[in-house]
Amino acid sequence: MVANASPRKFRHATMRDFPQMQKIYAHARELMARNGNPTQWGNTFPREEVVRDDIAHGRTMLLVDTVGGHERILAQFALCPGEDPTYQHIDGAWLDNDTYVTIHRIASSGLVKHAARDCIRWALKHYGNVRADTHPNNKAMQHVLETSGFARCGLIQLIDRPTDTTRIAYQRHEW
User: Fold this and answer.
1) CA-to-CA distance for 8 and 116, rounded, in angstroms?
2) I need a surface site. Which of 40, 102, 150, 169 has the fewest CB within 10 A?
3) What's the pTM value of the predicted model, to 2 decimals?
4) Cis ω on the peptide bond leading into residue 46 (within 30° of 0)?
5) Domain presence at residue 1
6) Which InterPro entries match (predicted)?
7) Which domain holds residue 127?
8) Per-residue pLDDT of the chain (175 residues; tens, 9 = 90+)
9) β-bridge pairing 101-108 and 91-92
């Protein structure tokens, strides 16, 4: 932790956060490309209208702290309740058919270590049954999910993109 940094906390994003969130997504796209995963988000994902919609509907959570009186966004993610249409067909099997939330569009600012893992822990603590997916080339996110106790359930196909749609599907259910 940075000297004089406040404890980390979670809050909902507002439209005031949008410019900084876009910078964090740009950082994440660059990092993915440098680490052998240039196509998961390419240069356009997540799309601006999706991020704005997530904020407007209260789906975007931010992990923040404060340093020198200024709040910093450490990580961000969309937490989507309800059945995800993309997850209806899986080459494999989900752990169960219980109610779940999905983590989408998770990105770290790179300011602190383990920010994505903290986001996942928070989602599990508050919702218990969590699903997520990631690109086969996104080894970093696979590592975070697997070391956070998620089971690899199979493969799904994204329904909102024309190419490069196969994703590894994960689930963890706190019984």
Assistant:
1) 12
2) 40
3) 0.91
4) yes
5) no
6) Acyl_CoA_acyltransferase (IPR016181)
7) 6-173
8) 556 778 999 999 999 999 999 999 999 999 999 988 888 888 888 999 999 999 999 999 999 999 999 999 999 999 999 999 999 999 999 999 999 999 999 999 999 999 999 999 999 999 999 999 999 999 999 999 999 999 999 999 998 776 778 999 999 998 7
9) unpaired
DSSP 8-state symbol, 120:
H
Closest CA to 171 of 139, 137, 134, 135: 134
| Rounded Cα distance, 106 and 16, in Å | 19
173: left (phi over 0), alpha (psi -120 to 50) or beta: beta
Q: Strands, E, within the chain: which ranges?
A: 9-12, 60-67, 70-81, 91-92, 101-108, 129-134, 151-157, 166-173
CA proximity to 55, closest of 108, 16, 110, 107: 16
The residue behind tokens 């603590």 is: 125
Number of domain units in the chain: 1
Considering the domain boundaries, does residue 18 fall inside one?
A: yes
